[in-house]
Amino acid sequence: MKRYVQDRNPPYKLIEVFDSTKPEPKAPIFMEDIKPFRSIATKDMPWISSRSQLRKYMATHNLVQVGDQVEAVSRPVERKHDNSLKQELIARFNQ
Known about the structure:
By secondary structure, this protein is α+β, with helices and mostly antiparallel strands. The protein has helices at about 50-60, 70-75, 85-95, and strands at about 5, 15, 35-40, 45-50. The strands form two sheets. A two-stranded antiparallel ribbon has the order 1-2.
């Protein structure tokens, strides 16, 4: 799929962009660590103050964060519809 960027100067042409033309970041990117919180998943309710503690805690207690279930979301759900109620309503309406 081709990608285009509009030139900022007149005549504002569309310029095709290739992956090699992506600008390099001008500075390193840092992600802020998580804010400390108490986990309510277990009775001891420990304080968790870093991502490494969170990963270890979740692995120890077989926990999964909401939004991490990629397989469950990507699988199509098979639904079996019972059309008997629909047919009954249509029959009653048409009487």
